[in-house]
Amino acid sequence: MQLDKRLARSERFAWRVIEDEAVLVDRDEEEVLRLNLIAAEIWQALDGSRSIAEIIDQIHQSFDVDRKTAENDVLRFVKELFKRELVEEAPAAAREPQAR
Amino acid sequence: MGADPIENVVMMEDHDGAYYAWKQAELKDRIAVHIDAHIDFGWIPERDPEALLNLGTLRELENQSSTDSLWNFTGRPTDKLVDLGNYLNPALREGILRSVYWVAPDRFFATRERQAQLEAMLHEMRKANPRALQQIAWSNGVLQAELYGKPLTICPLANIPRFQEDVLLDIDTDFLIINSISPAYPYPDHPNPTPWTWPDELVERLRERGLRSDFVTIAYSVEGGYTPLDYKYLADDLASLLRDPDLPAAQLWLMSLKRDAACAHDTGKFAEAREAYERTLALDPDDASVHYRLAQLAYEQGHVDEARRYYEQTVTLDPTYRTEYNNVGPVYLSLGQFTQSAAEYRKIIALDPQHASAHRGLGDLSVQQGRWDEALAHYRRASELRPGDGLAHLGQGRVHAQVRNWASAETELKQAVRSKECEGAAQYWLGYVYAKQRRWDDALASYKAARRCRFRTRGLYLALGNLYLRKKNMYQAARHYGKAARLLAAAVRHRVRRLPESVRRMLMTIRCGDATR
Q1: Cβ–Cβ under 8 Å, residues B348 and B326
Q2: CA separation, residue B14 to residues B85, B171, B222, B427 (Å)
Q3: DSSP designation for B109
Q4: What are the structural domains, with CATH classification, of chain A?
Q5: Is B102 in the same domain as B227?
Q6: Reported ipTM exceeds the 0.85 cut
Q7: Could you tell me the mean pLDDT of each successive run of 10 residues in chain B, 517 residues long?
Q8: Which of A21, A34, A78, A83 has the highest number of chain B CBs within 10 A, making it the mutation to test binding with B?
Q9: Is A84 within 8 Å of B56 when comparing Cβ atoms?
Q10: Closest Cα of chain B to A52: distance in Å?
Q11: Does residue B347 fall inside a structural domain?
Q12: Are A27 and B49 an interchain contact pair (Cβ–Cβ within 8 Å)?
């Protein structure tokens, strides 16, 4: 997973944060999913405007973990979300201009 | 019952019409005596999962999500989820009913095994909604339970208690025909399903139990294959007997003649049957049911022209006789009895060459047998007779797909999708057509659309599993293969349950034998 990639939450979910956990309703899969505190933070950050590297920084700063641990956790979780089709690559419009 | 006339007798095709009739009459707090071969109090998956998002705490979320599994992921409003299999449920919860007696056919209680089947049906229901269905127990030959805190009693006619008030009598005509949970259940056994009891006998037995009713609902239940069209008229006979206990002797004589004719017909005594039918027609020339039976009889005796004349007369007198279920082709097809199904469809086409559903049914049969050209011709004919028939387009699309005519398949299937009649199946086949052309993204989109339409078959999950495997998404591949496997396991269990009793007993013996070795 490239760190400059921007991912956005799939629009097929209704979701809300309840007591620091994110609760997701997936009508297609007929499931209700719960994401814990850190996962919920990552989930909320996946709005298509931030790169994965930026999200890693955010987790590193918010949760008092070293950057390597934050990177491992975020990448592992984002890959999981990607596999489950909970997130998708952000459309170009949502991205900031790429520096060359 | 059978002594005083009942003014309110409401007739309907689908049995959920009873719920709407009760609502319209503003009935409250009543006892329903539901005389039927089927339960009709199935669950309604009505809990909106998005309501969970309005909860304030995780504890509330846990409590809410652990109580039952009746989530409505369809997004359809609850009142649109009421159907002929669950309408008693809202009637109880809305206070229309305070108690339900399900009077099932006598043979449902005939042996301990049958009784166990009934009890198992309730325990199976309870798994999905344990709080709503409780206290399941036998008592003096009747099965009792509490449904939403209100009494539910399952009993044969002989065990109906003596009520001290007028009840809502709710009858399904299929009760008269289906007498056991046979391999064909929920349909009646074929061929020649003859009533095990008749309207006058039923009314007499209800009278013996001292039953009184001020509001009766009667469902024909022909559409779907539950009451054979041959016996649709029994619902009307029942209604006549309940509305007027002092029916003129001539009308009672007519009922009796029709019964004799039907019994003779069903046991192959054609001459006797014909004579009785002709005598009834002499008394009532406008009885569509007799014209219909004579059409069948004439056909069975090889008099096709005469059969056609009787059939034309039938549908002129009562156009509801031109239904998809005016033959048992669809029922035989669903039971995998292709030869009998074909014979039924051919019979109805001989009687009614414009019968679009029968042409489509023959198309479905030809597909089962891999006769693609023939199938296409039948589907095309169905489309000509009923333009815009989504199922006929679906059929044509499937056939084109089988012979790898991708462009035509896509055109037909897109038309089927637009018809909305069979959108899920059409999307599934579109997915198949795209996948065969290696248009992977289109295939995935169509399969997902099929899933959104609730078309959730083993084939669909396998196809999705294969596509995800190709995309190297092992998680999703495994997940979909798992779903396919679970559906397969459920189908195998279902088949085992449908084995004839004698075979199941043998299996039991073999298992016992193994255990003692």
Answers
A1: yes
A2: 10, 11, 8, 29
A3: G
A4: 6-85 (3.90.930.60)
A5: yes
A6: no
A7: 83 96 97 94 86 88 75 81 92 96 93 90 90 92 94 95 95 93 78 88 94 96 90 96 91 94 92 94 93 92 90 92 80 81 90 91 92 96 92 96 96 94 94 96 95 89 95 90 86 55 43 31
A8: A83
A9: no
A10: 20
A11: no
A12: yes
